[in-house]
Amino acid sequence: MMLLKRIFLLVTILFLANRCQAQLSLPLFDSRFNMLVYEHVDKMPLFPGGDMALAKFLSKIRYPKEQLDYHGKLHLSFIVDAEGNVLDKCIHNKKAADYTLLDKEGIMLLNRMPKWIPGQLNGKNVAVRVLIPMKICLQVD
């Protein structure tokens, strides 16, 4: 068994940039959940405890032994509904049949995610799609 000496994880949370965008998107109706889902709103959903707490949570991802020398991005995608529930957890632009072991670990991490503070549009809680790209840089010495 290989001894894992160092693991570097750089979490890039690009949804922060979404908060700065002035232009709001039109919602898409998601028939699976019977709700309108936005991509950009006045107030984006917030992880409990803020961005630093989210980074700490994401750093708890488990790395498959088979992918210890992996370098790349993991694009986590999900919906935060109007009550703060995390729904439709997936890897952005990837079919489930094509998920790698690391992708599957990312989904398991999303399954452990607590409720969020919902996003708001015009003072009303709405469902928002969140995309979190994670830059993964694992090295085994």
TrEMBL record:
<dbReference type="InterPro" id="IPR037682">
    <property type="entry name" value="TonB_C"/>
</dbReference>
<feature type="domain" description="TonB C-terminal">
    <location>
        <begin position="62"/>
        <end position="134"/>
    </location>
</feature>
<dbReference type="Pfam" id="PF03544">
    <property type="entry name" value="TonB_C"/>
</dbReference>
<dbReference type="InterPro" id="IPR051045">
    <property type="entry name" value="TonB-dependent_transducer"/>
</dbReference>
<protein>
    <submittedName>
        <fullName>Energy transducer TonB</fullName>
    </submittedName>
</protein>
